[in-house]
Each structure stands twice: as C-alpha cells, then as structure tokens.
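Entry 12.
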Amino acid sequence: MNEMPRKTVARTARLASLPLGVAGRVVGGWGKRLVGHDAAEVSAQMSAKTAEQLFAVLGQLKGGAMKFGQALSVFEAAVPDEMAAPYREALTKLQAAAPPMSTRATHRMLAEQLGRSWRSRFSQFDDDPAASASIGQVHRAVWHDGRPVAVKVQYPGADEALMSDLRQLSRFSRLFQALVPGTEIKPLLAELTARMTEELDYRQEADNQRTVATAYDGDEHFLVPKVVASAPKVLVSEWVSGMPLAKIIREGDKQLRDKAGYLLAEFHYSAPAKAGLLHADPHPGNFMLAEDGRMCVIDFGGVARLSEGLPAPLGRLMRFAMEDDSDSLFETLRAEGFVRPGTQVPAEHVHAYLAPFVEPLLSEKFHFTRKWMQRQAERVGDLGGQDFRTGRSLNLPPQYLLIHRVLAGSTGILCQLDAELPAREIVERWQPGFVA
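Predicted 3D structure (tokens):
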C-alpha cells in the first residue's frame, strides 16, 4: 500500500469496537457485585481487561491511533505485564512493517514540497528508504554542496489519517476514564491531540531541531544535525551516523552501556535549561553514539516547550519523596493538579507509591536494571495491592504529560542498557527545586 488509507470506515469500526467491549464488561461487573464479589476487585479486573482491549486495538492501527497508543504507553505500568505485552508486540511489528511509499509517490511529494526542480537541489538521491516512521520515511541523499543529508518525506494522506484517528479517539474519553479513574481525561486527550497535530508540520519540527542544534553547537558530548531545508511535509537535515542504542543494548560492554546511559540522562535533563525544549520521543532509535564518542540525537517532531526549564515543583516532589516528607509531598502534588479536588487518598499511601521511583537518587551511583523496573511495574500493577489503588486515584496534569512520558521512557532505556550512573549528580545540576 503506497498511501495511508484515507477512507476511515474500517479504522472507525475498529475504534468503535472499544466502547462496546467496555459496556459488556460493565454489565458483567454489576452482575458480579450483585452476587457478592468485592467491588474494588471487580473494578480492577474490568480496568485491566479494558486496557488489554485498548492496547490490542490501538496496536493494530497505523498513523494517529498508533501514535496515540505510543503516547498512552506511559500508563502501561498500571496494568499487568502479560496484558500490556501483546500491545507492545503489535506496536513493534507495526513499526517494522510500515510499507514504503512507491518511488513515484515519493517523487510526487518531493516535487509538491520542494518544487518541480527538486532534483537540482541534490547531487544524489537514494530512492530506497533508509528508515520508516509512523507518518513518514527517511531517504539518504547528497545535497548539491556535497553534504550527506537525511530526507524525511511524509506519507501522502498521513495528515487525514491522523486527524481522523484523533477525532475518533477523543470521542472515547469514557473508555480511557475506566483505565485511570483518578485522571482527568479530557484535557489530557486535548494535550495529546495538540502535540500530535504539531508533528504533521515538518516546518515546526525543523524549528525545534534548529533551536536544539544551536544550543548544543560545538558541544563535546552531543551532536544534533543541522537543518538544511524544510517544507510542511519534507525535512532535509545533515546525515548523522553512529551505533544505535538498540545495538549498544544488545552488544555493548559495560563501559559503553554506562556511557550511553549517562549521556541519555544528561541530554534529557540539560536540554530544557539549554534550549527550552524537552525531546519527547524517548525511543532507542532516536539516539546513537558517534565514532568520536558524542551522542547523536534525531527526530524533534515531538517536544515539550519548557522556556524556563524543567518545572521547579518536580524537583521539590523528588526531594520530599526522598526525605519521607509525606505531607509536603502531598500538598505539592495537590497544588500541581496530581490530586484532583475531592479525591480522598491518604498522604502516606501516596508517598509509599512514589518513594520507590526516586530510589536512583538516594545513592552516589545507581544501577538501572530490568529487574528493578519489573519490580516497580509489578508493584503498581498488582491488582490487589494498595499501590495499584493509589495509582488509580492520582491525576496526570496535561502540562506534565510529556515530561512523565520522557521520565518513564528514558528510565526504561536505562534499564535496558543495564547502565550504572550518577543519576543524582545529573538531577542536582539541572533540575530546579531539587536542592533546597
């Protein structure tokens, strides 16, 4: 298939199956309650089944629904791993199997975006894509001045498919509410929609990339490729190469894995202070180590705009959790909107839920392991445990959505790397509010 499907009947049918499944479970849940089953246990089971169906359906779709599913994956820890696993598997297969555009369609898009004489801009252009993404594909080329470049070309119809998916998904806010009862879903969906819509305009991505490239120009630790040219659906930037994080995860020795982990954490914490932007797509494919030891960072379609750096209340929350100051932690969470007005949840339960997440900041160095990550997932995903109930009582304010996604995603990568690094030292340097 050379173009993303513009007809949305099949996509809408799949998405529409979600609320029907939830309705059936709600009726079944009431039946169980009538015959004496514990209401909290029934609710937890329904939530888990809803998540299972939600992830499965989103994982089968391309474009907006897939991107929505990726963003929503910050909630994966709230459901048991065996239920989230099919979704992750479907998403991985979907990314790997993205069908390339035909050469003809690619050339048509380049002519539309860069002008009919687009070929004169390049001294060489490889028609076979070097990589694919959810809404576009990347080609290797050589710019007319001899510079190797990466040319990102958006799939025809990607914008229509994305907007169609987002409209459909936004109608199902009740379904998402069943997943996380304590979260105010509508503003969160609005924030997701706004950020994803931005990713359709490659000129916006080019502006983001220019900003970060300027901030790190000449930096001894990081390399952000410069933008060469941009149009709404085509982005040309300098070609960068290196060892992808995925390969370092598979094959790297301890020294290399520790270095990659340190640089990843350093970049995520320093970028808001240096560039006013947070790279919000923590995927191993967006980071690689160049031969000179610098970390190359690509893909700036999704960013959080943080003109004053990371929010200081986040630093205070980390500090209060470390200091076992349950009351200050709870009041700060309430002030920032993590606890909705009227929600009854004991401060000590909230502290018990969050404290293990700041464990990496308690020692001079911390070893991020899969086992540690799995313990956290099991703890908050245990349907019968207090932490699961506490997590379902907390809200995720829209302004923290992308920050939360980056913290969760990059921590996952650090655990995949099995990296040992001075996390506290990085946080002390870059996170406002952390040091009293």
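Annotation: The CA atoms of residues 109 and 153 lie 7 Å apart. The longest strand covers residues 136-143.
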